[in-house]
Design brief:
CATH architecture of one domain: 3-Layer(aba) Sandwich
CATH topology of one domain: Rossmann fold
CATH class of one domain: Alpha Beta
Shape: globular
Radius of gyration: 20 Å
Bound molecules: flavin-adenine dinucleotide
Distance between the termini: 7 Å
Order of helices and strands: EHEHEEHEHEHEHEEEEEHEEEH
CATH superfamily of one domain: NAD(P)-binding Rossmann-like Domain
Length: 332
């Protein structure tokens, strides 16, 4: 099997690829990254399995199904930081048919208004006439990323800090480069199709909630930047959020914080006066389509791109990593 694989990036994408390549028998795998956890975009995420702001749907369905299964498997290891949540997606307009991602999960059912109002007594009649229910995993980033780093290192993987300015800078040292640089691939490989989708969340102490919620954006557009959601994790709850396309702003906006708390606590009243633990903002790596493909860089080096996962990095990571393994085998 070929030696010398260099993975660029130590977020959820780079680490999943590293672990999967090792599991597949590749040796001499190293990660080079400008930042390491807890200082990546992957550390800002809620870590909920839920396909959001990523394309194309026909590939995402397969990747998210494989990721779901891998997360269920890893759930058996406490150090992996994976928990399950009861997940409610609420729609401000009636929807018919199944959620397109429903076949990827094990427990799923459409919700009618009566069931929604029984679960959420605060909701007014007509506010959410339909929705979906599912049971989905959450990979808590502050536990899951260190877990993956340990797994990678225990199998002989090396993680180095380094700022790579161009792929040709490292191509002579590697047979295969896996490019997992997220939004920063825009600069590294000059990808004009990448764009930021700003997110901001409030991390609060969990007052005893065991359900997570997303409110489907109103198609009319005026609230489309508001991505209202709660993610109930083992010790905290993530309150979100925003999804601001083309905004590069990563500072915390106070008005956004109050808006998020007001919107979330309108559905989940125990969050009205939350004990705030942390504020976070970050840029989702948006792209017209996730880029997962091989490119021949030179006679001796193939680059496999794996970036542009939008708001779904934790929802497709293992499925993408499995495909990276196939591409790496083909390039060996
Ligand atoms: C507020 C918020 C909430 C989110 N919640 C969820 C969620 O609940 N579920 C979900 O599925 N997704 C969620 N996401 C999306 C998720 O965070 C991203 O899709 C994911 O983190 C992308 O991971 P990545 O590893 O590709 O990129 P990153 O995490 O950005 O990692 C990129 C790595 O590449 C390194 N790098 C970049 N350029 C170079 C270079 N030139 N040389 C060396 N190293 C380099 C960086 O230092 C970094 O280590 C959320 C995002 C935000 C902002």
């Amino acid at each position: 099997m070929t030696k010398s694989i260099t993975i660029l990036g130590c977020g959820i994408s780079g680490l999943s690829c590293g672990v999967k390549l090792q599991e597949a028998g590749f040796t001499d795998v190293r990660i080079i990254s400008r930042t390491l956890p807890p200082n990546t975009t992957s550390d800002v995420a809620g870590g909920l399995w839920f396909p959001y702001k990523a394309e194309p749907i026909h590939r995402i369905l397969g990747w998210s199904r494989s990721t779901f299964q891998e997360m269920m498997r890893l759930r058996g290891q406490a150090e992996a930081g994976i928990t399950m949540t009861r997940f409610f997606q609420l729609h401000p307009k009636p929807v018919s048919g199944e959620a397109w991602w429903s076949s990827a999960v094990e427990v799923y059912r459409p919700l009618g208004e009566r069931e929604i109002m029984a679960e959420f007594p605060n909701i007014a009649e007509g506010q959410f006439p339909s929705g979906f229910y599912a049971e989905v995993p959450i990979a808590e980033p502050h536990k899951h990323l260190p877990f993956l780093m340990n797994q990678f290192r225990e199998r002989g993987g090396v993680i180095e800090i380094g700022d790579v300015k161009s792929l040709s800078e490292i191509s002579h040292k590697s047979r295969i480069i896996v490019n997992c640089t997220g939004l920063e691939a825009k600069k590294l490989v000059g990808d004009a199709e990448l764009f930021p989708i700003r997110g901001q969340i409030v991390v609060v102490k969990n007052p005893g909630i065991n359900r997570s919620i997303t409110i489907e954006a109103d198609d009319d557009g005026d609230h489309s930047e508001h991505a209202t959601y709660t993610i109930a994790r083992s010790e905290d709850v993530i309150l979100g959020g925003v999804a601001m396309t083309d905004s590069w702003e990563t500072s915390i906006d106070e008005a956004t914080v109050s808006g998020i708390i007001a919107r979330c606590s309108a559905i989940e009243p125990s969050l009205k006066t939350p004990q705030i633990l942390q504020h976070k903002a970050g840029l989702r790596p948006g792209r017209t389509e996730i880029r997962l493909e091989s490119e021949q860089l030179s006679d001796t080096c193939t680059v496999i791109h794996n970036y542009g996962h939008g708001g779904s990095g934790y929802t497709v990571n293992w499925g993408c990593a499995e495909e990276i393994v196939s591409l790496a085998r083909a390039a060996s």
